[in-house]
Amino acid sequence: MIQPANFDGYRVDAVDNVNADLLQIAGDYFKAAYGTNQSDANANNHISILEDWDNNDPAYVKAQGNNQLTMDFPMHLALKYSLNMPSSARSGLEPAISTSLVNRAADATENEAQPNYSFIRAHDSEVQTVIAQIIKDKINPSSDGLMSQQMKLPKHSKYIMLTN
Question: Tell me: the pLDDT tens digits for 9-20?
Answer without folding.
Answer: 888 988 888 898
